[in-house]
Amino acid sequence: MNLIDLFNIQTELLTPTEVVLTMEIKPEHQQPYGVMHGGVSCVLAETAASMGANQNLDTSKQVAVGLDIQTTHLRSMKLGQIQAIAQPIKVGHQIQTWRVKIFHHNQQISESTINLFNQQVN
């Protein structure tokens, strides 16, 4: 089982210029204080960015892998569905940069910038 299956992340849209993912936040995704763990936002953001970045590559020759992620948590949430919308800022030959905004009921809860390296497949 991979992390996408474990978190039950659903793909709503997958193109080279936009990715939309959804997932349901359940008690197992919460901190002991009853709010969603911030790491869940990071997992969802990097997943969306990676999926989109790989749409810009011939994955038989290259795959996009995460270099770094910067996430700002804008508001907390407890339970319910979240939606990640990822769009590229720059698609380069070696590095791609993607911005991912995560929403709950049309309110933005976080924003991430992810840099990915286009790694050669051996």
TrEMBL record:
It comes from the Bacteria. GO terms for cellular component: cytosol. Keywords: Hydrolase. InterPro entries: HotDog_dom_sf (IPR029069), PAAI_dom (IPR003736), Thioestr_dom (IPR006683). Residues 33-107 form the Thioesterase domain. One of its GO terms (molecular function) is 1,4-dihydroxy-2-naphthoyl-CoA thioesterase activity. NCBIfam families: unchar_dom_1 (TIGR00369). Belongs to the thioesterase PaaI family. This is Thioesterase domain-containing protein. It comes from Fructilactobacillus sanfranciscensis (strain TMW 1.1304).
